[in-house]
Amino acid sequence: MNTAAAGPNLSVHFTATVTLSAIVSVLVPITITIFRVVGGVSTLVYSATQSLPVGTLLLTTEVITVTGIDLLTTNPGFVVYQAFVSIPGGLAVIPTRVGPESFEAVAYSD
Description:
By secondary structure, this protein is mostly beta strands.
């Protein structure tokens, strides 16, 4: 996002949502991470892990939403935010991303 015309103290608010479906027989951890990229350098600003609920060969659908704020003390002029969804490999049951999915970031300044 182009923040060149904004004030010096930025506050970037973000929300990410992912919907997963699986036949669950074990707890499956899902991690959503948010990175800030300035000048090609990625910085982790948020990470949340949630486990899909235990089931007994039942098809489950889970919507996971995370919300956070990145408080920047200086305005870089241009900043990119990226959201990633991670599911550990080697699991017997792997959830499928079925949607909806969304990610948004909004910058505010003084």
